[in-house]
Amino acid sequence: MEKGFPISPDRAIFLSDAHLNQEDVHTRNFLALADRAAEEKIPLFLLGDVFDLWFGNPGLTFGFQKPIIKHLRKLRREGLRLYYVEGNRDFYLKREHEGTTFDVVSEGDLQAAVGEKRVYLSHGDTVNRADFVYRFWKGISKSRLANDAVSHLPPSIILPMADWIERNFKRSNRRYRGSFPERECREFGMRMFGQGVDFVLLGHFHQEKLIRFSVGKATKVVAVLPSWKDRWRYFYLTSDGAHGFRAFKPGEPLMPPTATSTPEPGQTAEQGRS
Fold first, then answer.
1. Are 97 and 55 in contact, with CB atoms under 8 Å apart?
2. Domain covering 11-247, topology
């Protein structure tokens, strides 16, 4: 366990961008993975955008979201450690969901340690520091002023607006073709490595990337997590540094039988699959 880190499990799994928007196979497998994590006593980190749109205000919770939230709370009460980093489609979750749905809700980035490995977790939407338009929009939409405005409007006004936004977000997910800012992600990783971080985990881009760096005698890693709906894949990390991507299969263990950080034959050092 790394000293000075309140979040210091000996192994963990990480998932991002589930974009759940109805009761379907994606939602069922998401909850099945959470059930399996609770059974195997593996902490689960969610790197944002578990729903297409999520407001912390209980009056603005969509009907299909309520049983999912209820199930996560039940698992947490029974001992599953759950951590959440807000994504660009999450708004003001901390007050309602920290200590209830999740152990910790981070409105920005989050640091943890898995064994001796320091891990930096970010949704990833602000990695590109040159995207001033988006950073400005996020600053406005996540501001206390916007939160207060939403909180004081009745659900009869907000929910129809939110439903319209959610339906448009759902369509945008289907046509998502965002480009991956590799240079910016590499630069971001190098800045974090300079601060002693060993693993940088990002979501947001809906693309699976595993990029390794040689920093002195050490190997450092930037892992970009794919969309959950793309084959139900997640990232795992153990205290001895074994790591990789793995597809969820109901009934199978979340960790590979022999966890290894070495790519399988035919895989590159930048992107490994299991």
1. no
2. Purple Acid Phosphatase; chain A, domain 2 (3.60.21)
Average pLDDT over residues 92-116: 95
* Dist CA 1 CA 37 (whole Å): 20
Instruction: Give Cα 238 distance to the centre of its chain.
Output: 17
The residue type at 134: Y
72-81, 131-140, 227-236: least confidently modelled range: 131-140
Could you report how far apart the first and last alpha carbons of the chain are, in Å? 27
The residues, ordered by sequence, that sit 6+ positions from 27 with a Cβ below 8 Å of its Cβ are 20, 64, 68
Q: How many angstroms separate the CA atoms of 68 and 75, rounded?
A: 11
Of 268, 262, 250, the C-alpha closest to 35 is 250
Q: Give the HSE-up count for residue 247: Cα atoms under 13 Å, Cβ half-sphere.
A: 7
What are the extents of the domains in the chain?
A: 11-247
pTM of the model: 0.84
Taking Cα atoms as reference points, which of 234, 199, 202, 197 lies closest to residue 128?
A: 202
The band of 165, judged by pLDDT with boundaries at 50, 70 and 90, is low
Average confidence score pLDDT of the chain: 84
pLDDT (0 to 100) of residue 139: 55
Give dist(CA 81, CA 105) in Å, integer: 12
Calpha distance 109→271 (Å, rounded): 24
Q: Which residues lie closer than 8 Å to 256 by C-beta, 6 or more apart?
A: 236, 244, 246, 274
